[in-house]
Specification:
By secondary structure, the protein is mainly β. The protein has a single domain, classed as Porin, CATH 2.40.160. The protein has 3 helices and 23 strands. It has helices at 2-29, 72-78, 144-147; strands spanning 36-39, 43-46, 53-70, 84-98, 102-109, 116-124, 132-139, 168-178, 183-191, 205-218, 223-234, 240-241, 244-245, 256-257, 261-277, 280-293, 298-311, 319-320, 325-326, 344-358, 361-378, 381-392, 398-408. A 16-stranded antiparallel β-barrel has the order 3-4-5-6-7-8-9-10-11-15-16-17-20-21-22-23. Mean pLDDT is 91; it is low at 1-8 and 24-30.
Length: 409
């Protein structure tokens, strides 16, 4: 299945790019328009009037994990934690614009050994009052960290409350901006779908939305204060909810988890903030899940994280107003030993917490602390190092060192 699925999707993605490239060239031939290649942190081909564009990109996140210590009580429960290596992400995508009004994207991830969808959608541009109108398989608009590209994460893994975030599903997404572009909103109707955007059954729709505002924003002064709120109401597939979570080390097992919970509805809510001033940056979120249990009664689970960091070089963490997410770090000086230039370097520390105990449900609680070091060689290449200490309540502790080589385009 692996080879067949991977081959079909790889050929399909390449075929989409080739067909749209041919269509764009043909469509503009009468006007003398041609697709001109260029590099913009990825390979881009577009016409001079930007009515047609094709971008080819991808990401490689290759990780190494070394478990430094684990308590006897944790080893008895979860076994001996093993060092290892993995491709955390290995993706390829093609996206573009056609006729100035249609946008599209097809992104696939091969890191699990079996190709799966990430963002695969078709959208319209220029619709009055909307900056986004998309139909397909995409991220639901929930949580600052979840919406931020994995290429721009400060640490190796998303914070512990990410267990609640819905991530990628099939649906319809709308979005817009306000307050002179410093604020933005996104909302959509989705269905919990598999890794190929498939779902069937009556009802079972979910509604998710996010609103953000940067009351303080100055690109020139590298200053940002960001606030945001997310919400989602969901009908669980099969009438069952279950949460389980690893520490912020992907090669570790799940340290906490609930049993299957018969549920009629789940309501998610989140609050978020981001602050940046020059070399300094900080971010925090709190996320909760209110589960309405079948037969009556509710269970409330929650989690949060907070981190702060500092660039040791004369660099900063950019921000996208309106979208309300962090952007790509572009070093003031790219790595080049011939010129004695070494790129950008940042250090950061994070604390995360997750509580899956409530109303007689004993899912456990987990606290993580992480110290991270990010080395940005150039806008597309980085090396990430991190040291994580995880403490599941009543089960001792463990620590691990992580290293990542990353290239994205």
């Amino acid at each position: 299945m692996f080879r067949g699925t991977r081959s079909v999707l790889s050929v399909g993605a390449a075929g989409v790019a080739i067909v749209l490239l041919a269509a764009a060239v043909a469509a503009r031939a009468a006007d003398g328009g041609t697709l001109t290649p260029s590099w913009d942190n990825g390979m881009v081909m577009q016409t001079a009037d930007k009515e047609f564009r094709i971008r080819v990109g991808g990401r490689i996140h290759q990780d190494w994990t070394f478990f430094a210590s684990q308590s006897d009580s944790l080893a008895r429960r979860f076994g001996d934690l093993q060092d290892g290596t993995e491709f955390r992400r290995a993706r390829i995508h093609v996206d573009g614009i056609a006729y100035g009004t249609t946008e599209w994207r097809a992104e696939f991830d091969f890191s699990s050994g079996d190709a799966s969808f990430r963002e695969v959608y078709v959208g319209l541009r220029g619709v009055p009052g909307l900056s986004t109108l998309r139909l397909g398989h995409m991220q639901e608009p929930f949580s600052l960290e979840e919406i931020t590209s994995s290429n721009y994460l400060v640490f190796h893994e998303y914070g512990l409350p990410g267990v609640f975030t819905p991530a990628y599903n099939a649906g319809l997404l709308l979005g817009g901006t306000f307050s002179s572009g410093r604020g933005g909103w996104a909302a959509g109707v989705f269905r919990d779908s598999d890794n190929y955007g498939k779902n069937s059954g009556d009802g079972k729709f979910t509604f998710t939305g996010r609103v953000v505002l940067a009351p303080v924003y100055s690109k020139e002064q590298k200053r940002v204060v960001h606030l945001g709120f997310s919400g989602s109401t969901r009908n669980p597939n099969g009438g069952v909810v279950k949460y389980s979570r690893k520490p912020e080390v992907n090669l570790a097992p799940n340290f906490v988890g609930t049993p299957n919970i018969a549920a009629d509805r789940v309501n998610l809510f989140g609050v978020e903030t981001l602050v940046s001033q020059g070399r300094f940056f900080a971010q925090a979120e709190g996320i909760g899940s209110r589960v309405t249990r079948t037969g009556g009664g509710n269970a409330m689970f929650s989690g949060g994280y907070a981190y702060a960091g500092w660039f040791l070089t004369d660099d900063h963490r950019p921000y996208k107003p309106g979208q309300g997410v962090a952007d790509r770090v572009v070093p003031t000086r790219n790595f080049d030993p011939r010129k004695r230039e070494w790129g950008a370097l940042a250090v950061a520390v994070r604390v995360s917490y997750l509580d899956l105990d409530d109303s007689g449900i004993k899912g456990g609680t987990l606290t993580d602390g992480t110290l991270g070091l990010d080395w940005f060689l150039n806008p597309n290449t980085s090396v990430k190092a991190g040291y994580v200490v995880a403490r599941p309540k009543g089960t001792g502790a463990m620590s691990a060192f992580q290293l990542r080589a990353q290239f994205d385009f």
